[in-house]
Design goal:
By secondary structure, the chain is an all-alpha fold. The chain has one domain (about 5-310). Helix content is about 75%, strand content about 0%. The protein is built from 13 helices and no strands. It has helices spanning about 5-30, 45-50, 55-70, 70-100, 105-125, 140-160, 165-180, 185-205, 215-235, 240-245, 245-265, 275-280, 285-310. Helix 6 crosses helix 11 (about 245-265) and helix 7 packs antiparallel against helix 8 (about 185-205). The chain is globular, with a radius of gyration of 19 Å.
């Protein structure tokens, strides 16, 4: 077996085992999350009793990963998802201790994200890793702000998408399955993608409907940071488009809803983000999740083919 295969097998086993015992520990400590009073109000009692900090296991495995493959590239890559995960952990902690569905104020959380991503993108610039796509040149004054917005946006987009059992985790697996076509599929990349794929697969085993655990803001920020880092560390900023295809639409639907409510005093969607709109239309949660996975897979495939036609994936 290759090093990537060994790493994947190890992280799958660790993810399954750690999630199992962490779910039991969360139940003993009642680490659940209050449900939003303005939510879809479906299965409220079941979801309110479900452990909501499964993303903590991502943090543990994210610390282990660079220790197993120590080097400057590993430290640079894993630092963004770990920093994002810690922001999410603070948010989840505030929700738990305040017995509320609201943690950080939105602006406070955004400031932490902006500072974290600004520092990390600055390190990318110093290491000469900023780029749009092989064969597609872009000046630093263009790639720098785009990388900054892409990293912040991906964290928030995954967090917004994480609203149904298995939705964000399944979409992340689809993105990681496409990654070998978008970034060099050798060396550190192969190991990192394998570790991420199988740690998420282990979590998804417990997160499919009916979910036994949720990833929480901790997991969503970690995965958003990991997907952004995978693209940006390899100088492939445009790879964020296929990797974040559905996540982007989910975030866009929330932005459109907020804008139209505040400026026009009307709603475009029955409820935002988009997955809740279809729930309000009467779709079953499993039906929404499966169809969104399909949309993400098709969109990611088409955009991947488009990018591969632009330049060599070298």
């Amino acid at each position: 077996m290759t090093r990537a295969a060994w790493a994947g097998a190890l992280f799958l086993c660790l993810s399954l085992i750690l999630q199992f015992f962490w779910i039991r520990a969360q139940r003993r400590m009642s680490l659940t999350q209050a449900q939003k009073s303005y939510g879809v109000c479906i299965d409220v009692e079941i979801k309110a009793a479900t452990p909501s900090m499964g993303g903590v296991v991502f943090l543990v495995l994210g610390v282990l990963a660079p220790l197993m493959d120590f080097g400057a590239e590993a430290l640079l890559f894993w630092s963004l998802p770990l920093a994002g995960g810690l922001i999410g952990l603070l948010d989840d902690g505030l929700k738990f201790f305040s017995h509320s569905s609201e943690g950080f104020r939105s602006l406070s959380k955004l400031r932490l994200q902006l500072i974290t991503c600004a520092v990390w993108v600055g390190l990318l610039l110093l290491n000469g890793r900023l780029g749009l796509w092989p064969g597609l040149w872009g000046p630093w004054w263009l790639t720098l702000p785009l990388a900054f917005l892409g990293s912040v946006g991906m964290m928030n987009a995954v967090n917004i998408t994480d609203g149904l059992d298995g939705l964000a985790g399944g979409c992340t697996l689809i993105s990681l399955a496409a990654a070998p076509l978008l970034v060099p599929a050798a060396g550190f990349n192969a190991v990192a993608v394998s570790e991420l794929f199988f740690m998420v697969a282990g979590f998804l085993f417990y997160n499919l409907r009916p979910a036994r655990t949720f990833m929480g803001d901790t997991g969503a920020h970690f995965l958003g940071g990991a997907l952004a880092a995978l693209c940006l560390v390899n100088g492939r900023l445009l790879a964020l488009l296929p990797v974040g295809f559905l996540f982007g639409f989910e975030a866009l639907s929330s932005a459109i809803q907020i804008f139209t409510i505040r400026t026009l005093n009307r709603r475009v969607f029955l409820m935002a983000p988009l997955h809740h709109h279809f729930q309000r239309k009467g779709w079953d949660e499993t039906e929404v999740t499966a169809r969104f996975w399909l949309v993400h897979a098709v969109g990611a495939a088409l955009l991947t083919l488009l990018l591969l036609s632009i330049g060599a994936n070298g």
